[in-house]
Please model this.
Amino acid sequence: MKSILSLLPLASLLLPLGASASPCIPQGVTITAQQILHVAPNSTTCANAPASTLGECATAAQAAPALSAAFTKYTLTSKAEQAAVLGLIAFESGEFEYNRNHHPGVPGQGTRNMQSPAFNAKYAASIPAIKDQAEAVKDDPDAVLDLLVAVPEYDFGSGAWFLTTQCEESVRTALQSGSEAGWRGFIVDCVGTEANDARRKYWVRAVEALGA
Model:
């Protein structure tokens, strides 16, 4: 009879996947359509989207997997940081109706957090799958934006990329506290815009939805 001990290595291979997962392996982030709808209640459908945004509008159901993939890719596991990004992109994109700047219409400005062309150039260059194409059209901001909005994960991933690569660590640390002061610091000191009541409304709803 074989020793029980000799069978242990084989038994360990039969454990359910993830049962003894290494702490070095990052866990995926899941954002649900229901959570997004709490933040952006008008994103149930694109049926009423204006003709000018044809092809731009996304529903909560479409946004959820793209946002989950982006948060996972950029290891955005802090609920407070997730809420800040979700609130920002919901506001800037008109609850996912737009991914291009139509008013006043700045060439190349877009993705769901309405990044400037300069940031979009940096963002596209950071994505291995499109960096060569982005380099080839770097003098055409609209063409760079076309590359980004063509893939939902890139389109919805701009906010997570921006926070994790363009914000000072002190801004992220304050944001991770979950405080309103931390959120205001992110909006004012990193995004570079006004932490007004309209943006705050979306942030509050995102905090509620994610339990941040």
Observations:
- Residues 89 and 113 are 5 Å apart (CA to CA).
